[in-house]
Write a structure and sequence with these properties.
60 residues, mainly alpha, 0% strand, transmembrane helix, transmembrane, plasmid
């Protein structure tokens, strides 16, 4: 009887931790995607600034 109770507790604990890890994985993956997009946009903006300043120095 007591062993069965422990088995049920362990199964519940594993389900709980699996759900928490799944949520944490989703949050980390979304954060990674957001940071990647922000860095890509910043890289494009930096490239644009460099090209504009080089054109300004070229013509003026």
């Amino acid at each position: 009887m007591n062993g069965e109770k422990w088995d049920q507790w362990i199964v519940q604990f594993l389900k709980w931790t699996e759900e928490r890890f799944r949520i944490a994985h989703q949050i980390l993956w979304n954060a990674f995607l957001i940071v990647s997009i922000i860095l890509a946009v910043l890289g494009l903006l930096l490239d644009l600034v460099i090209k504009v300043t080089s054109l300004v120095y070229l013509f003026f």
